[in-house]
Amino acid sequence: MQERLLAIADDELVLGWRNSEWTGIAPVLEEDVAFSSIAQNEIGHARALYQLLSDDADALALDRAPEEYRCAPLVQLRLVPDWARTIARHVLYEAADELRIERLKSSDDRAVAGLAAKIDREEVYHRLHAQMWADRLRNEPRYREALDELWPYAVAMLDHDQRPELVARFDRHVPSNTVLRSLERGVLVEDWPALWDEMTMVRRSVAGATW
Amino acid sequence: MIFEVFRRERKGQAFEHAGSVAAPDLAFAEAYAHEQYGRRGESAALWVVPRDAIHEIDDFPDELGRNYHRVDGYSLKVKLAEARERAGTTAGDR
Fold it and tell me: Most CB atoms within 10 A, among A31, A161, B56, B67?
């Protein structure tokens, strides 16, 4: 369970970080505010999960070596300035995330179940946001290509036993095991080291400082 | 398209104009209004209305100065004070 929570926390932290890269450069101002707010929510969820796992959430979030992070390759990808791919990731991630949060909600651990329910109430709006963009871009070739490209990443992000649910929801093919293994949690993609470097830069600049 | 957003701070209170959002359709307008006027817990409910749906009336001529049509037409307070003075009583005497 600890490992699963850490994986979700890392996903939320890193996706929040990636989405926040759109702050100030989103295609329209309203979207800039909305997407930044979603990014902030994701980081908030990460914070709450880290706090469940440790008395020092900051250390857990920011003091690990790059190879110790458990975030899925899907969230590691740097997608700015490609809005179509960003929305494709948003749509796929929110769908996969919904499945695993739903499972956490029925956890025997009341603290976990309670937090999952709380997170889910915010995620409802992320899903609505993702859905309205999906509806709007549905027939755009660039968006469709992005969905094809990122689909295996989304499947690989989930635990094995939850993958069929995602496949059924999107009515898409199951990626090959070779592909899935190359995109699973624990794999670090090319874009990751630079993100880690920037994300932990200030913490590392004055190691051990109290802020 | 511009949508006007009205906000109710607490249940039972009146909706007040909060501002507006620019959005391509109602679904986007609802999402943007939710983020702009609801994410800090400052609203219990929102109304999102296309600006075109709002009919403004701002023409209220009063050519003949008929102030008796208005609630502030007569200053009752002054008249009441004068009457009390004549009768030799004050508001607190009763």
Answer: A31
Domains annotated on chain A, with CATH: 2-205 (1.20.1260.10)
Q: What is the largest CA-CA distance in chain B?
A: 69
Give chain A's contact residues with B (Cβ, < 8 Å): 28-31, 33-34, 37-38, 125, 128-129, 132, 135-136
In B16-83, beta strands by DSSP E = 16-22, 45-50
Residue A124's nearest CA partner among A49, A45, A61 is A45
Instruction: Determine the residue type at A193.
Output: P
The share of chain B scoring above pLDDT 90, in percent, equals: 57
Indicate if ipTM > 0.90. no
Q: What is the pTM of this model?
A: 0.84
Model confidence pLDDT, tens digit, residues A89-129: 999 999 999 999 999 999 999 999 999 999 999 999 999 99
Closest CA to B21 of B12, B30, B13: B30
Among the partner-chain residues A30, A37, A129, the one whose CB lies closest to the CB of B21 is A30
Matching CATH number, B2-53, of 2.40.50, 2.60.40, 3.10.20, 3.55.50 = 3.10.20
pLDDT band at B94 (very low <50, low <70, confident <90, very high): low
What letter does residue A161 receive in the DSSP assignment?
A: G
Enumerate the domain spans of chain B: 2-53
Across the interface, of B31, B35, B39, the residue whose CB is closest to A132 is B31
